[in-house]
Amino acid sequence: MKELFYYVRKMHHFAGFKLYLNMSMVLLISLLDGFGIYLIVPLLSIIGVFPMDTSSIPLLSAMINIIESWSLDLNLPIILALYIVIVGGQAWLQRSQALLNSRILQSFIRTLRMETYRGLLQAKWEFYLRKRKSEFNHVMSNELGRVNLGTSLFLQAVSSFLFTLLQIAIALWLAPVLTIAVLISGGLLALFSRKFIKKSKRIGEQTTELSKYYFSGISEHFNGIKDIKSNRLEQSHIHWFNKLTEHMERNFIQFGRVNSLSQFIYRVSSVVLIAGFVYLALEMMHTPAQQLVVVVLIFSRLWPRFIGMQSNMEQLVSCLPAFHTMRQLQKEYEADQELSKTAFEDEPEDFRFVDGIECLDVDYRYDPHASQYALRNVNVHIPANRMTAIVGKSGSGKSTLIDMLMGLIQPESGQVLIDGVSLRDERKLLSLRSAIGYVPQDPFLFNESIRYNLKLVDPEASDEQLWSALKFAASDEFVRQLPQGLDTVIGDRGIRLSGGERQRIVLARAILKRPAILVLDEATSALDSENERLIQQALEELKGSVTIIVIAHRLSTIRNADHVIVMDRGRVIQQGGYTQLSQENKGAFKLLLNYQAGSQM
Ligand SMILES: Nc1ncnc2c1ncn2[C@@H]1O[C@H](COP(=O)(O)OP(=O)(O)OP(=O)(O)O)[C@@H](O)[C@H]1O
């Protein structure tokens, strides 16, 4: 409930005046609704359904007096016209209120969506290392939808409450004893119905768990579809899916059962109550028939409200777990914001460095409680405008070191400096990031055209610039041969391109950014030797004006490196010039070179 009120307060802060306007409209609608009902009674008496003495009904006699003071004879056409004006006006108001309601809700949800998306994007990289990506899909689609529904149900509940309150006030005025009897019965029923609310909440918690499981499952399966198909794992996955959807079906049916049972109980009790009231009123209290008609009319409007409110509450509490999930995620990403809120909006200062990037006594662990360090006592200097290669066995910490140099992760102890300024300085970090062109091991491309994918880093780039970047990455020829050239759509994550083609397009994109620092993490691993040679030549031309950091398993790729860092189990075990290290006979780099030369023979 705490989380619901958090979002309601947020909505109040966001919508303010509109929210009150909305509530006032609801009150006016319920008032008109009351008058509409009132008018049915004289209408019935005028057309001779039953004789009546209107003076015994307080509000009605006042209304009739007002109409008569306008020197109008109370006849059928006037009553009908009034009825049409009131009910028509109420319908118009209802429409305007529904529109206003929808506007408030939709813009609130959009704000929430934007806030969550922005908050997630501005969270630290470490936040993403901890969380599952499917959790974001789940929250951004399913849970946000449920928060939307819950907030709308809450607004409805408040409207219903106000509406019902007004109707109760009118009914109390007309027939206090009978209305109190209705209220007591309603209260008793609501007390009894608490268990339905509790049950709905439990079912809602299950819904959250199941949908989380569903989202993570399907996103993992479709990411791994190639493995599933090539290893013939379809059947076991279909079995998993079948079981899960069976649970989801049961969960929904269970909610339907609770909801319909409470509705059933309310409906049956309403008939029993009406019968009881009629008996009580006529036989024991000798209430005048016309008053009874009004009360029964009001009761028949009021009771469905109780039913609606009960159902509303059950649905609302079933959405509460979604509020909880959203709020938890929000707290986590807020605690893990990478930079202050305004920093992202600031234009980053121009990135310039003359000396280089330096790690001083850097330690880092992915899990602060684990004994194993991914980086341990790392001291390296990456000289500006030179090519530095990082080599070592798989798992030795190369990618972690690159993440550290890009400021994606921060050292547990020690520091990272750019020309002597710490990377913990927000402005430095931002300007560094804007100056980096990064090509990862598993390059990322959108299911859009090659042009779109390239222009992401420079929307103003001309075709000439695009082709020149493609030429740099040895990909101009194959792009020219594609049916739509630059406008060819490349499929999800670039699935319609080969691994090597994908790598080259991402390299072209990194180059188009005209980076001061180019980071290549196994970026040419999928290339044939001819294309790799072309790219090496191109990189050679960048030396002197761009700082290049390369991770490569294939040591032939780093022949042109000015500086080599050799890593093993998180430690830097050797560093120096390529030629120098390759001549140190017992050195780790020489061993790696010998090993690769041997395995290639
Ligand atoms: N997200 C993570 N969570 C926990 N441990 C991690 C994570 N990423 C890497 N590690 C661990 O940190 C160590 C260094 O990993 P890293 O990816 O930096 O190695 P690498 O040298 O780049 O390996 P490769 O050449 O296979 O890419 C490894 O022991 C690895 O298991």
UniProtKB/TrEMBL annotation:
Annotated keywords: ATP-binding, Membrane, Nucleotide-binding, Transmembrane, Transmembrane helix
Domain ABC transporter positions: 357-594
Molecular function in Gene Ontology: ATP binding
Membrane topology of the entry: Multi-pass membrane protein
InterPro entries membership: AAA+_ATPase, ABC1_TM_dom, ABC1_TM_sf, ABC_transporter-like_ATP-bd, ABC_transporter-like_CS, P-loop_NTPase, Type_1_exporter
Domain ABC transmembrane type-1: 59-318
Compartments, as annotated in UniProt: Cell membrane
PROSITE patterns (UniProt xref): ABC_TM1F (PS50929), ABC_TRANSPORTER_1 (PS00211), ABC_TRANSPORTER_2 (PS50893)
Residues passing through the membrane, by range: 20-50, 70-93, 172-192, 264-282
Name assigned to this protein: ABC transporter ATP-binding protein
